[in-house]
Amino acid sequence: DTLSIYQLAAQGELTLLKENLQKDENLVNKPDKRGFTPLMWASAFGEIETVRCLLELGADPHALADQRESAVSLASTGGYTGIVVLLLEKNVNINSYDWNGGTPILYAVRGNHVKCVETLLARGADLTMEADSGYTPMDLAVALGHKKVQQVIENHILKLFRN
Amino acid sequence: TQLPLYTSPSLPNITLGLPAT
Question: Most buried of A64, A74, A145, A156, CB within 10 angstroms?
Answer without folding.
Answer: A74
